[in-house]
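Justification of computing resources. Each target in the renewal requires a structure prediction run like the one illustrated here; the chain below, 367 residues long, is used simply to show the kind of job we budget for.
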Amino acid sequence: MYLVRLVVVESHALVREWERWSDERDGVEIAAISSAVSGLDVPLGALALAARAPLESLPQLDNEGRVLVPSPERCRCEVALEDAASFISTVNHGARVIRSPLPYVAFVPQSDNEREFLEGSKGILAGMRTIRTPSCRVPLSEARPEWFKDRLLGVSLLSDAIASRVPVGKYRDLVRLFEHAFRLSSTKISKRLAGFLDFRNRGYSRSEVEAWMRPRNPLSHGDEQDEFPHEADVRLLLPRMEEAAIDVLFNKAVWRDSSTARRTAWHPPLWTESRDMSRLVGIRGREWQIVSQLLDSFGRYLMDRKTEFATISPDWWTTRAPDESEGWEQIPEREAAISFLTDRGTLRVIEAEDVEDEAQRRASIRR
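Resulting structure tokens:
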């Protein structure tokens, strides 16, 4: 049996002749999918790619009879696809974006027994995953230029990170902001940064910060590495890193120093309070917005909802298990709170005084 992983590569420089392109990397076959053959409605400037890797055994089923996509072969396919996308971008001298179409996973059975195994399942566990992150603006009436007089480079780094469309580029700028703020390398900063972020109940831990720093050296030192992390390896780290960077830039008392002392400049009125971003807290009456990103179920690439296969190769088995629908449920907080349950967690709306009470409590504990 083979596993097939599909993506759509967007690049303004692409032309239709790329639909005849194919390659092979470490036992993974990569090929462009012709829109004329597949019926895939891909716009000009985009290319559908499929990576195919052999499986050593049948995939496993979960307790509900759904087919689990094996991680080792999937990761091999994704690395090959990202390398292919980088090659295409370089040859065409055009920026590229990788997205997952529908479907983005298929199996190719090589025998009647393998096909019967797939047909007897509930489908492939390969749905869509929603990540919801905070977006807050500082009201102009509250903004103070003097906040940043000693940390203008930090402002520049955060601005570059916000502007970057490339996850790896955003990641590098955020790490450099942390290193610049604390005047510590990524190998020494985790304890100090985690200590600084232990303010309000935002769920930061040293292990989470260490996970942020782990890709730093492989992404920055080409002389020491033969393999590098790819954009999908850092994508899910970025929302919490950006939240932390905003807190550091606005509220670190002493810039370019390892101190964890805090000042009170500005705090966003919406934040996550768990590492998996499943719990958000917002302050009633303040301006904030929740930004939703739809990813494939592996959290690797943004979904391309505009691109779907009209037809598919008869050899490919693409039946997906039904997606779990979103539900709503009242969360028993205090009467002043409004909460709801989404497919990935909760949003809790609280009063401003509750935030201050929590901040004072945690500050007293630290003292």
